[in-house]
Amino acid sequence: MDLDSNNHSVFSLNYHLILVIKYRRKVINDEISNRLKEIFEYIQPNYNITLQEWNHDCDHVHILMKTQPNTDISKFLNAYKSASSRLIKKEFPIIRKSLWKEYFWSRSYCLLTTGGAPIDVIKKYIETQGQK
Question: Residues in domain Transposase IS200-like (predicted)?
Answer without folding.
Answer: 10-129
